[in-house]
Amino acid sequence: MDTVSLRPARQGDGEALFDITRRSVAALARDHYSPEQIASWMGDRSPAYYEDLISRGQVVVAEYKGKIMGFVDSEPGEVTRLFLLPGVAGSGLGARLLDIGIENARKGHTGPIKVESTINAEGFYRRHGFRTIERGYFSHGLGCDPIEIVHMELSP
Fold this sequence. Notes:
There is one protein chain. The protein is of the alpha+beta class. The chain has one domain (5-154): Aminopeptidase (3-Layer(aba) Sandwich), CATH 3.40.630.30. Helices cover 32% and strands 30% of the residues. It has helices at residues 14-28, 35-40, 47-55, 93-106, 122-127; strands at 5-8, 60-64, 67-75, 78-84, 113-118, 131-138, 147-154. Helix 1 packs across helix 3. The longest helix is centred in the N-terminal third of the chain and has 15 residues, at 14-28. The two termini are 29 Å apart.
């Protein structure tokens, strides 16, 4: 994945980010969550949801031969999203994106960097220095089962 370019997300990338998230969850989280949780994971999200994230200017995408392979989003003090196409998981691309997410999360923030990890990604974040704080749940509020998450943080 050395020839992957990293760039700020642009308006129009929302469809790709939506698709990456949906495909990533379906393939990488399926052994850790119920079929019902996977089916309802995206809630009422749409490509427009991701276009709104892009407009905030914190999303960075990884692109290979014109195709977006993954992305990271962050805000001061938190890496809020990191998703990859299933075929590139384990290639080192997630680590590259996480480094960018951490760097961006440190801008204007001096404390620990937080992440709400899925169960399946907890080991990934641990390998990159995050420690587990507690387990919790996330719900889209759509009447579906809450999704177990792991609250983690990286020391400053």
